[in-house]
Amino acid sequence: MILVSFGTRPEWIKIKPLIKKLDGNVEYKLLFTGQHEDLLSNLKNKENITRLKIRQGKNRLDSIVESVMNNESIFKGATSALVQGDTTSAFSIALAAFHRGLKIIHLEAGLRTYDNKQPFPEEFNRQSISRMADIHLCPTETSRNFLIKEKTQGRIEVVGNTVLDNLVDLKPVHTNKVIVTMHRRENHNNLDQWFGEINKIAKNNKDLEFIIPLHPNPNVQKHKRLLPNLKVVRPMEYSDFINLLAKSKFVITDSGGLQEETSFLSKKCIVCRQKTERLEGLGTFAYLCTSPSELEGIFDKVNKDHNPIGSCPYGDGKASEKIYRILKDEI
Prior knowledge:
Elements: E1 2-6, H1 9-22, E2 28-32, E3 49-51, H2 60-68, E4 80-84, H3 88-99, E5 103-107, H4 122-132, E6 135-138, H5 141-149, E7 155-158, E8 177-181, H6 191-204, E9 209-213, H7 218-221, E10 231-233, H8 238-246, E11 248-253, H9 257-264, E12 268-272, E13 286-289, H10 292-304, H11 319-330
Parallel strand pairs: 1-2, 1-4, 2-3, 4-5, 5-6, 6-7, 8-9, 8-11, 9-10, 11-12, 12-13
């Protein structure tokens, strides 16, 4: 039986298409690690989901690791563990599974910046998982090549990114809507500068409608007043958000997954980060903006030429089917 763990909204979005393939075909159980509590209210068959109780401590990351270690109940009956991405809970589950001799499956393997501080702690987490995993499910050839260069052990497969499986039925169009998302920990120290610059751009481009679903993190919410020229909305259900995304002109974001989704929907995005682990789309679908002072110039460039050339480098929307065949063969 496969233990499939998730705890954040992005993790659930990326494992959901795979769960549909596994249902009735491969035995599994779900472990909810609890970062985004509201997820459970929208999930069916809650009785089949094991919940991790995170012990509270001064350091949240320490608390997650501590809560997974020496916790036999969450691994009961499992012969393998599937973790997605690069959260501390994914790292902790992989480490505990490694200690128990379970087979480890890493979904979205091989993404790299090779800078443990960018992003923190995700870069350390995903590199560490790669040293333990038995099956590496890579979204691209680039991520596969990183693992080969690192002399990573285990089976390495390029399958695309499962997030795109959610988008295959959408028909993208270009409108005057510019979608903004900002929430990453690395931007919290100068989020007021980012928001100030975005608000100024919105003020100077009245022909465009700027929409920001404001992240619930208090470090983001406290800067809401800096966005009078944007349409500030509550966090959206994923189905509503991707429908809005499909109707956008382009996107300003510090998200990782949005770089994949926008490219699949033939949109460009401005990535407000020091570094990105999604290198494949740079220069065609994505444009790295490392400081607020650079944003206006990059914005003008993307606004004038918002139609990307080429196909999505992150997959074809059929990743879950490929992964299902691999797991059926291996497990």
